[in-house]
C-alpha cells in the first residue's frame, strides 16, 4: 500500500507510539490528524509536529460522534485509521484483585473503542481508492503476561477481531486491515515493567509501521514479537512459561 499523500487519523497520538508514528507519517507527505483525551498532550504534540490535534476520549460515544462529524466535514478524504489509543493496568489475578473492574476499564479503551471507531469511519474509508485500518495490539495477543492479565485479554480479543475484519473487508472493499504487534516499548507507561531499560524506542515502531504497510505485511511484528510468536506456536506451554519467567 502506498503510504504517502494520504489523510491519516491516529488515536492516542499525544505521546509514545502514536506521537512517533504521526511524526514519521507526516515526514512522508501525509496529512496526519492525532486524537487523544489529554488536551495538554494533544495540543503540545500538534504544535510540535505541525498537524491537527483533536481532543477526544475514545471511550465516550458522544465524543466519538463529534470526532467523526469533524472528520467528515474537514477531512472527507480520510483513508487510514490507526487505532493506537490504549491503557494497561499492572496487577496479578487473585482474591481482591478487582479484575472485573480493571478488565472493564481496559476493554473500553483497548477493544470496544477501536471496534466502534472503525465501524463508524468505514463509510468514509470505503469511499477512498485505497484505504486501511491499522490496529496496534501487542506480543501478548497470543500469550498472556501474568502481571498484565486483563490487558493481555484485550489484545487477544483485538487480534481476533482484526483477523475477522481483514477477511470480511477483503471480500468487497478496498480497505486493508493491518495489525501491529510490538514487544516491550519504552513509553511513559512501560516503566514499571522495564520499558525504560529494555524497551524499544517508539520511533522504531513507527518505522516498522511505515515499512510494513508499504509492503502489505498484514501482521507487523516489532522487536522480539516475531520470535515469541514462533516459539508459542512451536511449544505453547514452554513459551508461556519462559515469557513469564521470574514474575
Walk me through the structure.
The chain has 247 residues and is α/β, with parallel strands linked by helices. The chain has a single domain, classed as NAD(P)-binding Rossmann-like Domain (Rossmann fold, 3-Layer(aba) Sandwich), CATH 3.40.50.720. The protein is built from nine helices and seven strands, in the order βαβαβαβαβαβααβαα. Strands 3-2-1-4-5-6-7 form a seven-stranded parallel sheet, sandwiched between helices. Helix 2 links the parallel strand 2 and strand 3. The longest helix is centred in the middle third of the chain and has 27 residues. It starts with 6 loop residues before the first strand and ends with a helix.
Beta-strand residue percentage: 15-25%
CATH class: Alpha Beta
Outline type: globular
Describe the oligomeric state of these chains in a short phrase.
single chain
Question: Notable features of this structure?
Answer:
16% strand, 9 helices, SDR_fam, oxidoreductase activity, 247 residues, alpha/beta, 7 strands, NAD(P)-bd_dom_sf, oxidoreductase, 7-stranded parallel beta sheet, single chain, Rossmann fold
Structure in a nutshell:
It is built from 9 helices and 7 strands.
Amino acid at each position: 500500500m502506498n503510504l504517502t499523500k494520504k489523510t491519516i487519523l491516529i488515536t492516542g497520538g499525544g505521546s509514545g507510539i502514536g506521537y512517533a508514528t504521526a511524526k514519521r507519517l507526516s515526514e512522508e507527505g501525509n496529512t496526519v490528524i492525532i486524537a487523544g483525551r489529554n488536551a495538554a498532550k494533544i495540543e503540545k504534540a500538534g504544535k510540535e509536529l505541525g498537524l491537527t490535534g483533536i481532543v477526544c476520549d475514545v471511550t465516550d460515544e458522544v465524543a466519538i460522534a463529534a470526532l467523526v462529524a469533524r472528520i467528515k466535514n474537514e477531512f472527507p478524504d480520510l483513508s487510514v485509521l490507526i487505532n493506537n489509543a490504549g491503557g494497561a493496568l499492572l496487577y496479578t489475578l487473585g482474591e481482591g484483585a478487582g479484575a472485573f473492574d480493571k478488565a472493564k476499564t481496559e476493554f473500553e479503551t483497548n477493544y470496544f473503542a477501536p471496534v466502534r471507531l472503525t465501524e463508524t469511519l468505514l463509510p468514509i474509508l470505503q469511499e477512498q481508492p485505497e484505504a486501511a485500518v491499522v490496529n496496534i495490539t501487542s506480543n501478548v495477543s497470543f500469550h498472556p503476561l501474568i502481571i498484565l492479565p486483563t490487558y493481555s485479554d484485550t489484545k487477544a480479543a483485538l487480534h481476533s477481531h482484526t483477523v475477522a475484519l481483514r477477511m470480511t473487508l477483503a471480500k468487497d472493499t478496498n480497505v486493508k486491515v493491518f495489525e501491529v504487534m510490538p514487544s516491550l516499548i519504552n513509553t511513559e507507561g512501560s516503566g514499571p515493567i522495564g520499558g525504560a531499560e529494555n524497551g524499544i524506542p517508539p520511533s522504531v515502531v513507527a518505522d516498522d509501521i511505515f515499512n510494513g504497510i508499504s509492503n502489505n505485511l498484514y501482521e507487523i511484528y516489532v522487536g522480539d514479537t516475531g520470535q515469541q510468536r514462533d516459539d508459542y506456536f512451536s511449544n505453547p506451554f514452554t513459551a508461556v512459561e519462559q515469557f513469564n519467567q521470574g514474575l
